[in-house]
Design goal:
Layout lengths: L1 H8 L6 E9 L6 E9 L3 H6 L2
Antiparallel strand pairs: 1-2
Amino acid sequence: MAKKTVASLQKGTKDRVKCIKMVKSPKTGAYIFKEEMMDKSQSAEFFKQK
C-alpha cells in the first residue's frame, strides 16, 4: 500500500531535472557551482547562459 502512495506523489515530478553548472566567480576567481531545478526542456538554455 505504501508503494502506491509514494508512486502517486511522484506523478508530477518526472519532467524535472537538477542542473549543475560550474561558474567562475569574477570577484575571487574561484569556481562555484550553480544549481537549479527545472523542466527538461529548459535545461539546454540553462547551460547556454553565462
